[in-house]
Amino acid sequence: MPIPSHTVRAVNDLTARWARTAAAPGRNTVVSAPSAWVPLAFLAAGAAGSAAAELGLALGVPPHRAAEAGRQLVGALGELRGVEAALGVWTRGDLPVELRWTTALPPDSHRLLGPDTAENQAELDRWAADRTAGAIRRMPVTVRPDTELLLAAALTLRTDWIRPFAARPYRPRSGPWAGLDVTGLSRTTALLDRVGVADTEAGPLTVLHVLGLDGIDVHLCLGGEDAAPGAVLAAAVRTAEQPRALRLGSTLADGEPGPGLRSYWHPSYRSEHQLAQWTVEFELSAEHDLLADAELFGLRAATDATRGHFPGISSAPLAIGAAAQSATALFGPKGFRAAAVTAFAAIGAGTGPTRRPPYRVRRIEADFSRPFAFLAVHRASRLVLAAGWVAEPRVAEREPEEPEDWEGTEG
Q1: Which whole-number Å values give the CA distances from 48 to 27, 267, 308, in the listed order?
Q2: Residue 390: left (phi > 0), alpha (psi -120 to 50), or beta?
Q3: Per-residue model confidence (pLDDT) at position 44
Q4: Residue ranges of the alpha helices (H) in 23-173?
Q5: Could you tell me the pLDDT band of residue 355, with boundaries at 50, 70 and 90?
Q6: Bridge partners, residue 160, by sequence
């Protein structure tokens, strides 16, 4: 089942807007807009009045089409190689629920909450852990005695690199990570166009495509040293949607054509051009209170507990009492892993030979050894599955014997 292009645009728009507020200097973060978009769509399908209008605007889809779009997206995600997606809906046994709304849900997604709050929480935590292979161990919202309805979406993705990186301990000598013992990742390819530079609202942006085996790629995106993290991450989403905006590596001028890039002619023992890639291993986790930025998610009106907002879900008055996401991401020498659970609760109310190199080849060096953005992108549809900001890399498990220099490294 292909992902409709209008849904891809709508979800990526939410990613870009969320990125502007989620990414901040000095703080790691990761978000998954698809995991939030699906339950928001089903909330919109049952909403009325100003709550419906706000949710539709945040989703980029009219409320009367939201349930179909949400069901299509969760179904399409579940069919992608390397991706698992699920929606869970829990309601109180005595809550009257509209049949039209429940029949629009994915099969087997509706369950009942029991009378014991602690048992309900344990069940929800198990659901989150089971749907993310243990990456998210707890539901990001807490069940309260007055919780009448809870919607949650889980998304996991994994991809192995077509060509792994070489890993070694590394200690940057300059920049924000100077002196940190981290795991450096390096490799060299003859495909210069795996890197490109785009002119964006955040300034010049260097984008390195790291291709995965399952049709899921990770884009590493480096902006100028003074560029705001949120602006860089939002701009990165647009480059994922519009790859023609990139000036590809084979067309770049000599010198420093983009952030973290150096391009020059280089004596070599091989006739192929060289794209040397240097980055770091990172492991991120983040907790997001979606109500802290309720307008972004179309939830401002829906949190007014003085009246109900979802007559299409239940004749009983319901308002949103909690909304949160837990997300993780791991980028390593062999591949990438990410997971997210989003929940909404409604309450009542590399050295060479010594002979002279016979060739002169184009060499581009892409160095991601300072804070950068990343995207996990479904290659065919260009849907951004996860996005984040790497303010601090993963600390190496063992210290390097001496400070390392990237120069000459090949993977």
Answers
A1: 37, 67, 9
A2: beta
A3: 97
A4: 33-45, 49-59, 63-79, 99-103, 117-131
A5: low
A6: 335
Options 2.30.39.10, 3.40.718.10, 3.30.70.20, 3.90.1300.10; CATH for 160-281+352-390 is 2.30.39.10
Retrieve residue 20's tokens. 């502007």
Q: Model pTM greater than 0.90?
A: yes
370-375 mean pLDDT = 96
**Domain residue limits, the chain:** 5-159+284-348, 160-281+352-390
Give 103's contacts (C-beta < 8 A, 6+ positions apart): none
With residues binned 3-state (H G I as helix, E B as strand, rest as coil), the percentages for the chain, rounded to 5, are 25, 35, 40
Tell me if 5-159+284-348 shares its fold with 160-281+352-390: no
Contacts of 407 (CB under 8 A, 6+ apart): none
Alpha carbon distance 247, 348 (integer Å): 54
Q: Parallel, antiparallel, or unpaired for β 274-280 and 359-367?
A: parallel
